[in-house]
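Dear colleagues,

For the upcoming journal club I promised to circulate an example of a predicted protein-ligand complex. I picked one with magnesium ion because it came up in last month's discussion. The inputs are reproduced below in full, followed by the predicted structure.
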Amino acid sequence: MSEIIHVHDKSFVPYLSSGEIIEKVKVLADHINHEYKGRKPLFISILNGSFMFSSDLFKLINIDAEICFIKLASYKGTRSSGQVITAIGLDTDLTDRDIIIVEDIIDTGKTLSQFLPQVYNQRPSSLKIAVLLHKPDATIFPVKIDYTCFTIPNKFVVGYGLDYNGLGRNLAQLYQLKED
Ligand code: IMP
Ligand code: MG
């Protein structure tokens, strides 16, 4: 667990092991299985970053549930570009559905705060937000989060689906940017 890895020009140190991550994902899945019993929720997974989290979470859902995917992006390198682009939009009717948005990380909150009006416009019967990671110290656009697996400091992380300029998504655990 002590090895330093290199992604592009930066060094990262191990931060959260895959065991620690899956333990929290299980707790979240148990909670959803219990709370949504008999309701058939629709998960909306926000690509690219949340593909691994969504996959692990969805495999642990044991009630009837659906999943769809949208693709939003706002990041360039290790900084939010401030512009949110919708690369793949919503293709599923959300009216009267119980929606659970699944996001890898909430940083400034811009991505989700721009996307949420599209969801509310379709009048879902309920809406909850589940995130793997939350960086409260980075908040610019506050978003009400219903489930957080880990609250983390305002430091850049890679792995478990999250990238640094396209690389690092395949790492099974999370790594944190190494201080110089
Ligand atoms: P926000 O719009 O500033 O909340 O940023 C959200 C998006 O930026 C996330 O969905 C991630 O894809 C990306 N992001 C934010 N922080 C990190 C990080 O530490 N590592 C990798 N990607 C990040
Ligand atoms: Mg993301």
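Two points we might discuss: The chain has a mean pLDDT of 94. Residues 49, 74-75, 80, 103-111, 156-158, 162 surround inosinic acid (ligand 1) (CB under 6 Å).

See you all on Thursday,
B. R.
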